[in-house]
Fold each of these.
Amino acid sequence: MIQELQGTIQEQMARWEVPGLAVGILHEGRTETAGFGIANVETGQPVTAETLFQVGSISKVFTTTLVMTLVEEGKLDLDEPVLTYVPELPLADEMARRTITLRHLLTHMSGFYGDRFDDHGDGDDALARAVAACADLPQQTAPGELWTYCNAGFDLAGRAVERVLGVPFEQAMRDRVFRPLGMERTTYFAKEAIRHAVAVGHDQELGKPARVAYPWPIPRRSNPAGGVISNVGELLRFARCHLQDGELDGTRVISAESARAMRAQQATADYGRTWGLGWLLRQVGGTTLVEHGGATNGFMARLTTVPDRGFAIAVLTNGEYGAPAHSAIAAAALERLGIKSEPPKRVTLPPEQLARFAGRYSHGLADLTLTVDGDGYRVERVTRNPFSGEERARESFRLVPISETEFIAEGGELEGSVLEVITRPDGTVRFVRFGGRLGHPA
């Protein structure tokens, strides 16, 4: 299938100026992998199927898999307050501190602000130090009330693993997941990745030369949320394990019951998406996709599985605009299986309805300013890189309504993304949810 997709791959890499890309496909029991472009614009080293990339938040599915091994052994309980396992946890809201469970963390339903990436060093105490610094995380909603993407929740789940096992999180993952699955090159550490072919991330502005992104590793405290470094072949081994209900090549990592629970709906997320345990769930043409994306500093990644078809595709990129490229490539692959999404129908809203929601909204990673523009909005966006601290004004884009409170992006890198307005009973705006985050009126 990769040969059939080469035109799409080359087209998308050129359109979004992606320096390098690796793709792996599991289909009808066969695995194909290939690399395209370069791993580093400064060296010109080519990408191969073996090249390691940061996979970002795909790491959350690994962390959930690890947690489920401990649930099966009775060492963790998804519905116990996380305070049972991490009694030193400080949170700004005492009720939330006492009631947040591991299930809340693994489904992004804890309600506290989660884009915290401050560096607590490279030592084995990094997660402990990160948890000790959670006291000032704003509690945006009550636990279980509203879905909002929460990286810090997975770091807290990783700390629970450390507390019950008495070993560093990364060692637990290596012993319980990486090694049993034969993921010999997958790691969390740059000092181990450097022994193999490895890509660097790139900062980009379209039409300008790409630059190597710094820093390369994310802070160790964020390893449970986004620290995995892997290649497409080894990601497909992980995907096969889940498609086979927790078993690979005669080795069982988690029970079939746990594997199925991970891909069963646990929470309603944002438009068109629900959440399992760790996995994102999406219905396309009556077929359930079980997947996760990833974004770190200059890397964009995607792992999509189709359990009903025994199919998986992994796409890893080392460019800041890799997300629209990997989305298009995955969509083209799924179309070859007869799985094709249809865009939602637009609706028309009166000008006074549009005017209600115009204004500026902000969360930790971005500021959005919505201005009424004809039948929709013109959106100005400023993003903040949580790893480098850089702020950047991005290309403006349009939103058009698909319901009274939901608006879809037209064109550009965010095409198809949906902004939702969440109102109070009196009709005033409480939040906008965009990119999975809750933004407050500014």
Amino acid sequence: MKSTKLFILIIGLTLFNVGCQTVKEKTDKLIDKENKNLSSFINKSEENLKISLGEPDAQTMTDEGYHILFYKNKKFGISCERKFEIDESGTVIGFNSKGCF
């Protein structure tokens, strides 16, 4: 009886682990796709970014004089925020993405 319960427990944990690994792999692929898409804006103009993504939801200035543009939305109830850093010449020099897929 004990060996049957142990066997069922081991099978259950194995299936759970495999399921978690599959979810992680799918999530990693989506994040890689998001990063590839956003990195295509690096060294492009701010205007090019706005043509592709529209007007930002918010923007601010850093102490160094760079613009930070914020794009926010929700998908399946999950908040997504993309931030782009624009230098003084109007060129995208960096980005950050949270919760986007």
